Amino acid sequence: VTFASRRMGKGNREIRKDVRSFAADVRQLRHKARMNNATYRLVINMPESQSEQQSYWVEVTNKKFLLNYSDDFAKKQKEAIEKKEKDPSDFEVDHSLSHGGPQPLPSPLYFESVEIAAQKKEYTAGRLYIHFFPEGRVEEAVIHIGNRDKLHWSMALHPLTGRVDLIDKDKKLKDMLLDQ
Q: Distance of CA 4 to CAs 1, 41, 103, Å?
């Protein structure tokens, strides 16, 4: 999951191509999870500080995994990250998909926010995880991507089919649920 081109001063066509490429890479995570009988997760890192660069990468575990949104578990994960210790959920970076580690979105794109249905919250900062399970399910989520020139995309991940819809405007998860 990486982008080949990182040129500055891109036109709208090239920016749209980068967004479509990211969406295609996210679609592939569901297939990888099914083929490898493993749980994958897309990690989106949106630091609180605007001076730090946003990034994303892919992690994997072959162990049975149960989603845990408790405050205690979130605290353990945060502490492990800060201490640079092993993730308590046993996920590790998949270097074949992450090309060695965190990747930035191509300039001028950035993650505006991420909505995860099970958490009933929209995040504009923090380290977020979207899970792809071996049986083909995907955590229902919307990734909002934008650029500084008022271009916005909403990437909707459908839980049962794993379908990834790319919508060329900012559309919230609750609005997408009403459309179905």
A: 10, 21, 11
Where residue 117 falls among pLDDT bands split at 50, 70, 90?
very high
How confident is the model over 15-52, as pLDDT tens digits?
A: 888 888 888 889 999 999 999 999 999 999 999 887 88
Locus of tokens 């580690």: 101
Greatest CA separation for the chain: 45
Beta bridge partners of 56: 44, 103
Q: What is the pTM of this model?
A: 0.84
Q: Which long-range contacts (CB under 8 A, 24 or more apart) does 157-164 make?
A: 157/26, 157/130, 159/117, 160/136, 162/27, 162/30, 162/132, 162/136, 162/137, 162/138, 163/27, 164/23, 164/26, 164/27
- Count of H helices and E strands in the chain? 4, 9
